[in-house]
Known about the structure:
single chain, alpha/beta, Purple Acid Phosphatase, chain A, domain 2, 10 helices, 15 strands, 33% helix, globular
Amino acid sequence: MEHTKKRTKLKKGPLIVLLLFLVVCCLGVGGYFLFVKTNFFQTEKKETKVSRKIEVQKEDVDYEAKVFMVGDALIHSSIYLDAKQNDGSYDFKPMLEYIKPIASHYDIAYYNQETILGGADLGYSNYPRFNTPDACGDAFIDAGFNMVSLATNHTMDKGETGVLHSVEYWKGHPDVAASGQWASYEERAESVAKVYEVNHIKYAFISYTIWTNGLETPYGKDYLNSVYSPEKAEADIASVRDKVDFVIVAMHWGTEYAWNVDWKQDEIANHLSNLGVDLIIGAHPHVVQTVEYINGGKTFVVYSLGNFISDQLDVDNYTGLAMEVTLRKHVGVDGTKTNTVVDPKAELIYTTVTQRRGWSSDFRVKMYPTLTDSELRNHDSYYEKYKAIVNKRYPDLTWGLTWE
Length: 404
């Protein structure tokens, strides 16, 4: 019996030692993982704090987009015949060769496509029912223009078929902000509410006309031409105002060949400004008109840029206005944002042309300061005449563009 008890005691000893060893190991491993885990999360928190500090804006920041604007591409038959090549194609690019180095410098470059790109099947035509080759649009895009107004009094010159061809053409150039003609109400709503962005600045672009030359859109298809009404503008702008920093509206308005702004232009400009429009770009008079800030500086208005290229009447119509403005978004360290249209600058442009046997040819658009007497006699006096018209409501306007 004594021997048996002694053997039992001998067996418990190693077991106890083994148990103690296992306990120590478990405590050690657990402590190690606890240490690692604790330090891991502390490191992660430190890294998170560091990354957050990097993202904090330490000073005010200004984002800017420069905008270039010219007027009407009013393509008379003499212009598209001058662009016609021996193989039957059309090339308008040489007409813009002096403008391309300027327009392509800007973030946003705007023009008004006065005459519709209605398609060759309908036949190209002159006043009063225009139809212009698609190659005209190609030339403007090649020159750097990426914003185009399509709502004009000539939109319906070739009916619904012409508009649908124009819509398809511009759909083929998605990098261009085109507004004023659509193929459906759905496409119109999508276009009006579309947000464009450049240099961290978000903007919307909408085009309207108040003139139709009596060529109304077919019943139930008023999406074909964006005819202005106060209610339509209110709904359109409300759909996009809170999504963007700037709203730009092109208006086909005013009285043809009138240098003075009419009461309807003033009324519409103030209504659009109250709706939150920052920049209004005007067309239709075919001559230059004044520019100004309205509504306490909230909105900058260019009432008429005149013609960009045309073969219409005389010097007044060959002369157009080129404008530059800067869209500036100021973001403060506290997160507040202020959006303003600043630094307006102007220059006059002129369509030069050669008369051969009574037929106009060799169309080129040039800046007034580059003109010679052979291209426009007494161009210095004309410059002062049109400059005074443009300065009428804004005498502090800066002349000369900064593209150079």
